[in-house]
Amino acid sequence: MKSFLVFVFSVAFCVSTTIAAPPSYKVLSRIKIGGAGRWDYVYVDSANHRLYVSHNTTTEVIDTTTDKVVGTIPDTNGVHGIAVANDLGRGFTSDGMDNDVTIFDLKTLKVLGKVKTGTNPDAIIYEPSSHRVLTFNGRSNDSTVFDAKTGEVYAASIPVGGKPEFAQVDGKGHVYFNIEDKGEIGEIDAKSAALTKHYSIAPCEDPSGLAINPKTSYLYSVCGNKMMAVSDPAAGKVIATPAIGQGPDGVAFDDGYAFSANGRDGTITMVGETSPGKFEPVATITTQNSARTIGSDQKAHKLYLPAAEFGPPPAPPAGGGRAGRAQAIPDSFMIIVVGRG
After folding, report:
1. pLDDT tens by residue, 247-304
2. Sign of the C-alpha dihedral, residues 216, 217, 219, 220?
3. What does the alpha-carbon distance between residue 132 and residue 111 come to, in Å, rounded to a whole number?
4. Which of 29, 53, 160, 277 is the most exposed place for a label (fewest CB within 10 A)?
5. Are 82 and 43 in contact (CB under 8 A)?
6. 3-state secondary structure of 2
């Protein structure tokens, strides 16, 4: 009888810990925007069905129910990222060429003001528990913290010990960000506006995009050496390094999976927890070369990737040397929409 009970318990345990097969994703459509072929991050506001797209000197706004451009926020020169504070009715863009943040009204898209930052603000994020906005300034290697309601600057420059990249919040006041040139994760306490932690995510090199699992607070960093570093910020350590494609700059989280946008390969690597504590690639989704950043609508289970068509690279100089970079084909800028098939 004892052996039988052990057998039944073992079977029940195996069934209860079986992880479901991953959902299938594919390209559903492409949203034509046109204009210059320069962009960086996108931000998905699921609550209001809007997608904000950084696009050279402007920020495009798309209605995700119709996939139509419904507005533009002008004079966001060299815009990198977008943050949204739905509880305050405000949005924010990091304007890398002007070293400032544009504050805008979410309903009207009217510009409400500007806040000066460090040099070349790149990632930007809203921390809801403190009602503060943080920018991560790529050339001055620091973070600027200001009040989302008033624009009052709490900290003009928090040195972060390297070149900061994308950031995430855990909803409890902690702001995490990649440090690209050091292969580290940094942590800022939003309320005290102070750097509180650094930890290594080696063997990850050149981490750029960052996503967070809102349930576990695990962080997913995409790295230049074709891996994703899954780390536990509470413990300050890497727990997995699944393989991804080449040229990632963004990663998104949706329904238990992390999605690396591999711009050089023109693919997305979908990473899941295949057994407790084990993270592996579970699918490769074909997108398009240059689709290197990504945002997720975690309600609709859709992914949005900016991209453009590129011509062939120019021939090398007659006297030798490296060929120049391929240039974007005029008016080919678009958003690739990926969802469940």
Report:
1. 999 999 999 999 999 999 999 999 999 999 999 999 999 999 999 999 999 999 999 9
2. positive
3. 18
4. 277
5. yes
6. helix
Q: Hey, what amino acid is at 292?
A: R
Q: Coil, helix or strand for 337?
A: strand
Q: How many Cβ atoms are within 10 Å of 32's Cβ, its own excluded? A: 11
Query: H/E element holding 48?
Result: none
Distance CA 334, CA 338 (A): 13
d(CA 64, CA 86): 17
3-state secondary structure of 309: coil
Q: Say if residues 113 and 100 touch (Cβ distance below 8 Å).
A: no
> Of the candidates 107, 64, 55, which has an alpha carbon nearest to the alpha carbon of residue 82?
55
170-174: long-range contacts (C-beta < 8 A, 24 or more apart)? 170/212, 170/214, 170/217, 170/233, 171/128, 171/129, 171/214, 172/129, 173/127, 173/129, 173/130, 174/233
pTM for this predicted structure: 0.92
State pLDDT tens for residues 206-230.
999 999 999 999 999 999 999 999 9
Distance, C-alpha 188 to centroid of its chain:
18
Return the closest-CA partner of residue 123 out of 153, 102, 93, 145: 93
| Amino acid type, 38 | R
Burial class of 117 by CB neighbour count within 10 A (0 to 12, 13 to 18, 19+): buried
